[in-house]
Amino acid sequence: xxxxxxxxxxxxxxxxxxxxxxxxxxxxxxxxxxxxxxxxxxxxxxxxxxxxxxxxxxxxxxxxxxxxxxxxxxxxxxxxxxxxxxxxxxxxxxxxxxxxxxxxxxxxxxxxxxxxxxxxxxxxxxxxxxxxxxxxxxxxxxxxxxxxxxxxxxxxxxxxxxxxxxxxxxxxxxxxxxxxxxxxxxxxxxxxxxxxxxxxxxxxxxxxxxxxxxxxxxxxxxxxxxxxxxxxxxxxxxxxxxxxxxxxxxxxxxxxxxxxxxxxxxxxxxxxxxxxxxxxxxxxxxxxxxxxxxxxxxxxxxxxxxxxxxxx
Length: 312
Ligand code: CP
Hints:
Blueprint: H1 12-30, E1 43-48, H2 54-65, E2 69-73, H3 86-94, E3 100-105, H4 110-115, E4 121-127, H5 133-147, E5 154-158, H6 165-176, E6 180-184, E7 200-202, H7 205-209, E8 214-217, H8 233-240, H9 244-247, E9 255-257, H10 270-273, H11 281-305, H12 307-311
Helix pairs in contact: 1-5, 1-11, 2-11, 5-6, 5-11
């Protein structure tokens, strides 16, 4: 692949290649060994048009650990604020010859559009409700490490599915790897036509969690609700917040995931989030660095192997 814009175009063997390399980087990270210099001599620019803690920090760390020159554009202080368009901004940075452009944008499709205008590799760090491919890859690696496999698992993705790029990328990835996916949440937060994706849909959380191996909670994304229906937090927690009583419906060894940032007491009880026997939320963060290292390493190999294709 020239870019990493989404999970949709990836084949299962390509997903496995990223996860295998990330697993090796994760093992090195734990032993604090040097990671080599896969990105030495390359320039990585991070452009985040939306707030981020985990994704931005881990892309920066990943690039630095692999020897790239990393520049974080402060979009709040950029000429975007003077009215410069996304494409003009990208073309301006492109003229400085970066090799890797990491982009987060509030509008679905904005990162794909930008990738058509620049001649470097582009990584989607989350675009609107569309995709967040590195999040799905780090979630997959976390599941594979915790459960020992990434196929034939029962996985419940719970909460605000309609506004979630994390849900979309995970549905695509976990489906490609032949898992059974259940979506759990109120009908008002389910996208139209979602059953066509080969998933089961539940509005009763206890039934949706019955016997599952993985419980993946999602943040209630009020900023994307466009003035539509916003549930009361109290009511939402009562029906769809993960607490000990609802988690007891899942398999006894089920793991609990959340991409962060979390709304404690809204979609998840703080004690569940912090329970080191069930929650792998901190592992997800740790795998984020390893997966982003692997993704950029593989794109850089492609850049080096096919410079004409990339620079055409
Ligand atoms: N999960 C995730 O994308 O978190 P950030 O918004 O903090 O990057």
